[in-house]
Amino acid sequence: MRAAWLLWSCAGLLMTAGPSGSPGAPWREHSEKSTLATGLPCIYQKDTSSPTTVVGLFAAGGKSAVPLGLDGLAYLTTRLTLEIPDEGMVQDLMSQATRLSLLCSEDFSAVLIECLSENLKEALRVAGKIIQDPLITGLRIGRTKEMMKLYGRSEEDESTAAAHNAVMKAIFPGAGYGTAVYGTEESLGGAIDRKDAVAFYRRFFTKKGLFFYVATDLDKGPVRALLEKYFAGFPDGEDVSIPLVYPALPAVRDIALTRDSKQTYVGRASLLPAPDAPGQAKGCLLETLLGKGPGSRLWGLRMTENAKSARASEALDRTLADLQDKGITDEELRTTKTMAKARLLRSAEAKASRLRTVGLYEVLGLGHGHLTGISEALDKVTLEDMNAFIRESLSPDRILRVTVGPKPAGATAR
Amino acid sequence: MRSYLTVTAGLLAMVMSAALLLAAGPENPGKYFVLDNGLRVFLYEKRDLPLLHVVTGFDVGSKNETDETSGLVHLLEHCILFRGTSVRSGAEVSADIRRHGAYFNANTGQDLSLFEISLPAEHAEFALRNQKDILFGLDLSQTELDEEKEVLLEEYNQMEDDPQRNAVDLVLQALFPGHPYGRSVYGRREVIRAATVEGMLGFYRKYFVADNCALAVVGDFATADMERLVRDVFGPLPKTGLRLEPLPMTVPLKKSVSQRFERDVREGYVFLGFVAPDYNHADQYAMNVLAEVLGRGVNPLLPALLRGERDSVQTVSISYLAFRFGGAAVVSIKMDPKDMATIQRAAVGYLKRAHNEAYSKKDFTGEAEMFAFDYLESAKNQIRFAVGQAEESGLQLAGSLARHLLLNTRDKPGRYLDEIGRVDSSDLRKTAARYLGKGEYAAVSIVPRKGEKQ
Question: Do the domains at B2-234 and B257-448 have one common CATH topology?
């Protein structure tokens, strides 16, 4: 399963990279993928930078797998797999500082287990028990929905998140990608019920829909043995592939969310090609070129155009148009590659942040080895390729405009 | 660019700095030395990735400002980062930074200004020379200063639009009235608008000197080589003999204060501040464990209690901010605005009674001991876990080390995790009584504007 198209406005999520496998990779220890005796795939990476272990159990069902009108189903179901029914189990986890949490993104949902490595056995014992036999009851669903309503409201207080959600909804109308991760008033108010959560769980929490990523200072053998012992209960399951969905620009290319804030958020979103390795490398370069660090193309706007949102908006359009028209030089491409590679390396330095990246690459079909492969893919991008990519991606007919802030005089706001 | 007003960042820095520096031993590749000009240096090898992280800190922050200079340190930090030197313009510095694949940033807090650069380890020499150049060679025109003021004033707006950052800033102002920590790190708009090059450079020349500076380098290098490079680059800087007079320590509020602000938000936010031990105080370890037991970690006591009161309570956390001349325990609660008064009362009531709690199994006898949950041991494990996690990020380590070099005044503070290990249940009760039980508090609420749809 893979997202066919990406937005450069959210490319940060998809471009954060890191290691594995191939010679010359920056990591001392490379990631390895194998299949456990239980049939579940497992990506293991030794990392002795700390005495902690991070285990991610990835399910290939994120927002993309959410049926129309059931916004929040992926998050709700994954959250329910973490409900601990037994007070004794809670106490065990608490006393050992083991953390269970979840991620729910466009293409996957994941349960994260983070612990001191010395406590891994107990952490996996408890996690295995609750994740493989979750308590999906009406009462628990009701409580989780209430929590999701709060999270959703809180997200609306943040302009960047609100803008991102509005763009996704606009370009994926009627598709899972366009749903709200924490649900809507309608979906949480009644549309989602117990049978939906059970169906989602049964579909994705299977040998065909799951895989592990483990980053740890412990040796591979004992870790594999624990995973095999405590996660042996998942059924084989059916095919979990999700039909590709293509984004479409809406007829109205302006989204304006009104907020009585001192600052105005001004953004542009553009549709990018599907994230195969070369395409993802070019997307990563475009993101770095435009908006990463001092000296990036958008950095200049900070100096001169920050006072008025209208001026900032015009300046942003001018900057994008200029880049689309003239492209970049060989030297700028070289500098951007250096910057992008170092950035990717830093973003995957810590185990937990690396886990997100590896999980995403695996789900997108790029493979865990892309953590290293991205560096090679960046090197292969030629000036001609890059300028063609820029011309296409920043073409005005592919751009959606989004503003979050005070209502401008005479504008129609949502 | 950033501010240390982020509660969690402050906490992590506190935990990490002590933990790492004091962990240095035969098995640990850390090395501490002081250059002849007074610049303090800590080198720490972290060789899992070919990256280098350098953080340079100065003992200057909002604590060194007055009402007339409030905001200048933050403005100065921006100018140093982005406005160039006598030999390179700001644009040239930015271009150099990009060419070397560097991440480049800075932050200003109550006590310190920290400047960080992180890049591929092969560019170590560039990193050190670049930082020395921008930090000790600022050149500024009035036009450049005026441009940077506009940027800073926008950052001010950004902070005010963010209820959490805004609330922490306000609660610290309310908690330390009359003390330099009671000034906002962001400063006063009118001071920023009126700043002159002459005034800025006067401030800069006083504080941005080698003997008021600490350097932490973490990453993929051999210590002996890096020491030579550091001495070569920073050794020639002059010693100025700067001696900063210590500030008075913060004192508890005489009377609790409550402030309420309306913003365009959908949630309600309550922040409670209590005066807490300073960075070098013996109570800091117990305070850290207490904050973990009450408000952080896997399943702390205060959130459990407040969620029992109202389902609408979304997040509850306690952060311990340890400054050089004082400290603050800040409780942050996000919830449905309609429940704010009830929840604030419940939170304050509980914290004032926290000195009566049983935190450890050892507080019980007989059968009760078997069933009691050991919050103390849990918190200690959580701190160990947090320290372990923080060791994974080189830049975070370097920042914590630089911070510790500048804030620590103890000769032999002891290994951090050992000190945490020695905290017992009675220490927690004494600390709770001392800082939460008797002390008055400052409360800041941020609520939706009246008439706005919930």
Answer: yes
Please state the φ and ψ torsions of residue B317, each to the nearest 5 degrees: -150, 160
Shortest alpha-carbon distance between residue A94 and chain B (Å): 6
Contact A115 B391 (CB under 8 A): no
- Determine the average pLDDT of the residues in A228-247: 92
- With beta carbons less than 8 A apart as the criterion, state whether A66 and A189 touch: no
Strand partners, A211: A58
Q: CATH for B2-234?
A: 3.30.830.10
Q: In this complex, do B97 and A143 lie within 8 Å of one another by their Cβ atoms? A: no
**Assessment of whether the complete model's pTM goes beyond 0.90:** no
Domain with CATH 3.30.830.10 in chain A: 22-230, 254-405
Contact A157, B265 (CB under 8 A): yes
Q: Report the alpha-carbon distance of residue A384 to residue B14 in Å, rounded.
A: 49
Dist CA B98 CA B103 (whole Å): 8
Q: Domain A22-230 adopts which CATH fold?
A: Cytochrome Bc1 Complex; Chain A, domain 1 (3.30.830)
pLDDT one-digit tens code per residue, B222-262 = 999 999 999 999 999 999 999 999 999 999 999 999 999 99
The pair of three-digit structure tokens given for residue B77, joined into one six-digit string: 């930090």
Residues 6+ apart with CB under 8 A from A206: A234, A235, A236, A237, A238, A240
Q: What local confidence, expressed as pLDDT, does residue A188 receive?
A: 95
The residue behind tokens 């998942």 is A234
Answer whether B46's CB lies under 8 Å from A49's CB.
Answer: yes
Q: Which 3 state secondary structure label does DSSP give B220? A: coil
The answer to whether residues B303 and B263 touch, using CB atoms and an 8 Å cutoff, is no
State the CATH class of domain A254-405: alpha beta
pLDDT in tens, A355-384: 999 999 999 899 999 988 899 999 999 999
Asked whether the beta carbons of residue A262 and residue B161 sit closer than 8 angstroms, the reply is: yes
Q: What is the pLDDT of residues A162-212, one digit of tens each?
A: 999 999 999 999 899 999 999 999 999 988 999 999 999 999 999 999 999
The two three-digit tokens of residue B441, written as one number: 């508090």
CB contact under 8 A, A296 and B151: no
Nearest to B267 among A90, A94, A157 (CB): A157
B216 band by pLDDT with thresholds 50, 70 and 90 = very high
Q: Using the predicted structure, report yes or no on whether residue A18 has a pLDDT greater than 60.
A: no
Q: Is the ipTM of this structure higher than 0.95?
A: no
B47 contacts in chain A (CB < 8 Å):
28
In this predicted structure, the answer to whether residue A394 has a pLDDT above a threshold of 50 is yes
Query: Chain A residue closest to B335 (CA)?
Result: A150
Residues of A in contact with B46 (CB under 8 A): 49
Tell which CATH classification among 3.40.718.10, 3.30.830.10, 2.170.270.10, 3.40.190.150 matches the domain B257-448: 3.30.830.10
Domain ranges of chain B: 2-234, 257-448
Q: Which has the closest alpha carbon to B298: B384, B361, B379, B392?
A: B379
Token digits for A56?
């991610």
> What is the sign, positive or negative, of the torsion defined by CA atoms of A12, A15, A20, A25?
negative
Q: Which residues of A touch B1 (CB under 8 A)?
A: none
Q: Percentages helix, strand, coil for chain B, rounded to the nearest 5?
A: 50, 20, 30
